[in-house]
Amino acid sequence: MAAKTTPGKITRKPAKTPKPAAPPRSKTKTKSKPWTTAEIEEVFRRFHKAEPEPRGELQHINPYTLLVAVVLSAQATDAGVNKATPALFAAADTPAKMVALGEAKVRDFIKTIGLFRTKARNVIALSERLIAEHGGMVPPLREALEALPGVGRKTANVVLNIAFGEPTIAVDTHIFRIGNRTGLAPGKTPFDVESKLLEVVPDHYKRHAHHWLILHGRYVCVARRPLCEGCLIADLCKWPGKTVQQ
Catalytic residue numbers? Predict the structure, then answer.
């Protein structure tokens, strides 16, 4: 039998006690502890001990072929460039020989490399400029290098470092990632990271710092899943997400 209800009377549920409001979330990201001078010195001491004379992986014969190889490596891998350049450099290892070879043949040699049409055009143009303005030689000056077609600051830094022994640091995607991930040289642009590295890297390690950092980023501190368990500097690294804690 159904229960009787009183006409006109509304049954109300007891009001719920409101939950206290959650405290507002802080918009400030947790910053890692800054590196000390002693820690930075130790990082590069270990890199030096592991590989005292690091070398770039782009194959070249002389400063000119190095310049060409670096220009070709933009938005491409060193391995991909190295597959194309031996035949190219066998045919033309000087600006004069490259100009004589011609843009169409240069394209044929480098067609496996991304943006090969634009790069072939730049290789011929920079070779002509070297002949006209520098006697067919690669200039050891940043301003002169950056004035060449297809050459930017990073390319100039690589050439100055490898061909002329200058303590420059060319910030590629690997070094940019390491600088920001580890907190060693944080920056929003490659130039920011480069400037910070030049500020903090000890002078006696600057000559090879570029190669140590690139190789570390290419084979250990990789983008997707860094190999922290095999990292020489894992105990010093300031990255909160590292996969080993020491």
Answer: 154, 172
